[in-house]
Amino acid sequence: MADGCKVERVCERRGLPTLPERLVERRTETGASLRALERFFNREVLAAAMRAAGMELLDGEAANVHRLLTAEDVSHAARTEARDRLARAGVDVDGVTDDFVTYGTIRTHLRECVGIETGRETGVDADAVRETVYTLVGRTEAVTERELSRLAETDAFDAGDLTVSLTARVACEACGEEYGLRRLLERGGCGCRGAESQT
After folding, report:
1. How many Cα neighbours within 13 Å face the side chain of 164?
2. 167-172, long-range: CB within 8 Å, 24+ apart, which pairs?
3. What values do phi and psi take at 178, rounded to 5?
4. How would you class 188 by CB atoms within 10 Å of its CB: exposed for 0-12, middle for 13-18, buried for 19 or more?
5. Would the CA dihedral through 150, 151, 157, 163 be positive or negative?
6. What is the number of other CB atoms lying within 10 angstroms of the CB of residue 162?
7. What InterPro entries does its record include (predicted)?
8. Residues 113/105, Cβ–Cβ less than 8 Å
9. What is the average pLDDT across 31-40?
């Protein structure tokens, strides 16, 4: 079955031999949802394509570019800009998006290639919560950019084409550490609870 599985084919083509194993680990060890695994897989595929083109990836950059390419709330201008940036770097954007999978493909892979029964999913989907936060930040950026453009059409504000990028900071009152929002979400918290349990 693996020979006909899109997950396996894409991983082989993109040079991601351990990605199927990481999908299984996320499913069995952390209980990641199928939709969370879909996003994880597609971001890894995008990151591999960006690295293969010689792009240097900053922390969380592949996730942000994936959002720009796929999220419904992203403006046409922002999506076009993201696609153009990838194309200029030598990334075959259509080829990459064709390699993206759906959660149904992930389910089929887990069931038929690995033998993991997916069943009905319950509980809080941490990745879905993260995605909601990313979407809200992206929507805020898009709205702010749109309103600044409107303001630039008046005599009260003089500016050229503006691109808005918001950086949220989150401080933990328990341990006093401060993190960028995206970094905090991707590392799974600040870790102060774990530190307290060891003292």
Report:
1. 18
2. 168/137
3. -125, 140
4. exposed
5. negative
6. 12
7. RdfA (IPR048925)
8. no
9. 89
- Residues 137, 121: Cα–Cα separation, whole Å: 27
CA distance 11 to 60: 21
Q: What is the mean pLDDT of the chain?
A: 84
User: In whole angstroms, what is the distance from residue 78 CA to residue 75 CA?
Assistant: 5
- Reported in sequence order, the residue ranges of 28-158 that DSSP labels E, i.e. its strands, are none
Instruction: Say which residues have a Cβ less than 8 Å from residue 83's Cβ, sequence separation at least 6.
Output: 69, 93
- Residues 147-175: pLDDT tens digits? 888 888 888 888 888 888 877 888 888 77
pLDDT (0 to 100) of residue 195? 44
Rounded to 5 degrees, φ, ψ at 30 are -115, -5
- Has residue 47 got a pLDDT over 80? yes
- What φ, ψ does residue 193 adopt, rounded to 5°? -65, -40
What tokens were used for 94?
């259509």
Q: Residue 179, SS3?
A: strand
The pLDDT of residue 31: 83
Which residues have a Cβ under 8 Å from the Cβ of 147 and sit 6 or more positions away? Answer: none
Paired tokens of 138: 């992206």
CA atoms within 13 A on the CB side of 193: 3
